[in-house]
Amino acid sequence: MASRVVKGGHALTEYLNASKAAEPLWGDVQKHVLDRASQPSGRRLDVLHPSEMVKTDWCHRAAFHRLRLNAEAPGRGRSSFTRENIFEEGHRTHEKWQNWFSQMGRLAGNWKCRLCGTEFWNDTTPAECHECEAPRSCLTYAEVPLNADPLRIGGKADGYSPRDGALIEIKTLGLGSLRYERPEFLERYMVETESFGKVPDLTRLWRDFRRPLPTAVRQTQLYMYLGRHFEDLEIDRTVFFYDFKSTQETKSFSVIYDEAFSEPLIDAAAAIVDCVAADTAPYCNLNGRSGCPSCLEFKERK
Ligand SMILES: [Zn+2]
Ligand SMILES: [Zn+2]
After folding, report:
1. Over the chain, what is the mean pLDDT?
2. Triad 87, 93, 95: Cα angle to 5°
């Protein structure tokens, strides 16, 4: 009985540990951040997200259930302070680059007015709100919406430069984000030292970093497909900016649009939408009739 009540795993342990922090303010801010992370995020549950579609373990059956229920499987969304800290740092880095491109007059996208709440498209930085004429200082860049309504796909790119015919993707590269996102890439740069045991050789990792991470490439190919076919944007490449956290150095890469790349994902989305309309779950594409961890999470919610 008790074991059912304290279910919550890593996130709960982290939350309880926050109470034991030696400095009360440190403990309180950790709890505050984890509390906020447990609130509904505003992330839409009624659409397929390109970030999930491009994962090698994207389960079509789990996607079907989430769309049908308009809810995540129970137990999802656990976090940790470090994870939240990485997300927040990522947001700050986006804002920094978007500000620079906006000041250059090279940033198109949606802008949101904090005064009247209106969101509108502009090809450069607008001087004022299109609706209430509030000044530029009241406008926040709301990025580049990439929606395919008939396929129920909803996403957002970090930026779009019409003059360059390019989407812009901004990434941070650091020990923390690599540990979460690409542990196998980081593992290649672990070296044995006499004094400290196994440590990452970050200088070599950064020197060898010559292309965007594969998941990021898959995601941006899908973004470009959506931008061209559903948002009428003139795009033939994506420019990536990677900020290296350790030294604040930056590398930029260009990825050329490849139509064929996203076609299987588009077909899969169409099949999932058909299944939702027919209210018949597809088989799990990862593990057939037995199901995979993602779709099995939904089993009790049917
Ligand atoms: Zn306004
Ligand atoms: Zn599955």
Report:
1. 90
2. 105
Distance of CA 2 from the midpoint of ligand 2 (Å)? 30
**CATH 2.20.28.10 correct for 105-142:** yes
Encode pLDDT of 177-215 as tens digits.
888 878 888 999 999 999 889 999 999 999 999 999 888
What residue spans define the domains of the chain?
60-69+77-96+145-302, 105-142
| Ligand with the closest atom to the CA of 111 | 1
Tell me the fold of 60-69+77-96+145-302. Answer: Lambda Exonuclease; Chain A (3.90.320)
- Residue 55 Cα to ligand 2 midpoint, Å, equals 13
CA of 149 to the centre of ligand 2 (A): 24
pLDDT of residue 258: 97
Q: Which ligand is nearest to the CA of 285?
A: 2
- Cα angle 24, 30, 31; round to 5: 90
DSSP, collapsed to helix, strand or coil, labels residue 137 as helix
At 150-174, the pLDDT tens digits run 999 999 999 999 999 999 999 999 8
Nearest ligand to the CA atom of 118: 1
Of residues 64, 23, 21, 58, the one with CA closest to residue 45: 64
Is-contact 216 177, C-beta < 8 A?
A: no
How far apart are the CA of 137 and the centre of ligand 1, in A?
A: 11
Judged by its nearest atom, the ligand closest to the C-alpha of residue 292 is 2
